[in-house]
Design brief:
Blueprint (H helix, E strand, L loop, with lengths): L2 H4 L6 H16 L15 E2 L2 E2 L2 E2 L2 E2 L2 H10 L11 H5 L14 H13 L3 H6 L1 H20 L7 H18 L19 H29 L10 H8 L10 H12 L1
Membrane topology: Single-pass membrane protein
Subcellular location: Membrane
GO cellular component, one term: membrane
């Protein structure tokens, strides 16, 4: 039997599930009065979820302490190798600790990439990609009877729209050889190699946008993608120790 199958899960989402299940179990339990007034059980537990300690609470006052009084202390994610190698040493807001830096970049992303105003201004992107998808499907089935896995085609469509909105590039033109991050169990080694390859790729996107900006190409705000927006807004951040290019590349990776 594969030893990895027996290893404890490391996902943080499991922590939330355990908290919910534990609290549901506590609610459904008979009261102490109906069980002969047994001593009260502890209101918290500290099990390990994989490599990370998890706090499971079942007391209303403790829950209030965690989600109101001490909510900022518990807001950050645990540090990981992904944040170091793929997140440019926690420069991407998806890996960054909770604070001013995280808040500023999250606000920028929400307003300049995910807002309804921004999505509407980039409408031409998803209209173009849907048109391309239909044409590609037609050419694919034109040769004869073929099996079409529609979920795979929709996945391609989704990622092409995302990367086009962020950097003006189509995902499946560039990132077809990065699916072996965990191949042969050499996760960290593969992660470093993939991080280096992606840094070169994303760095070339940023440099291309810088050159276009110097040449006055795409002056219209409607044609600006997210990299254009970040280049016009983001500056070096001495407080976090990250320069502008690193911040931009890291957040492109987070969004993709």
């Amino acid at each position: 039997m594969d030893n990895n199958f027996l290893s404890p899960p490391t996902t943080i989402a499991l922590t939330i599930v355990l908290v919910l299940l534990y609290n549901i179990w506590r609610i459904k339990k008979p009261s102490n009065k109906s069980k002969g007034m047994k001593p009260p059980e502890p209101s918290y537990a500290l099990p390990l979820i994989g490599a990370y300690p998890a706090l499971i609470i079942s007391n209303q006052e403790a829950i209030k302490e965690c989600f109101t009084t001490n909510d900022k202390i518990l807001a950050s994610r645990p540090k990981s190798s992904h944040g170091i190698y793929l997140g440019y040493n926690f420069a991407g807001f998806g890996f960054a600790p909770y604070g001013t830096y995280w808040s500023k970049l999250r606000k920028l992303t929400m307003f300049e990439l995910l807002s309804s105003r921004r999505i509407e201004s980039l409408r031409h992107v998803y209209e173009s990609e849907i048109d391309t998808l239909i044409k590609d499907l037609f050419l694919y089935v034109k040769v004869g009877k073929v099996k079409v896995v529609i979920s795979e085609w929709l996945e391609r469509l989704t990622f092409n729209i995302i990367t086009k909105m962020i950097c003006g590039k189509r995902y499946f033109e560039y990132l077809q050889d990065v699916d072996d991050v965990e191949a042969h169990g050499q996760v960290l080694k593969s992660m470093k190699r993939i991080a280096k390859d992606l840094d070169t790729l994303v760095g070339s996107w940023v440099e291309e946008h810088v050159e276009k900006s110097k040449d006055g190409v795409n002056d219209s705000n409607e044609k600006h993608d997210f990299i254009d927006v970040m280049l016009s807004v983001i500056e070096d951040d001495p407080a976090s120790g990250h320069n502008r290019d690193t911040i931009i590349k890291a957040n492109v990776m987070v969004c993709i």
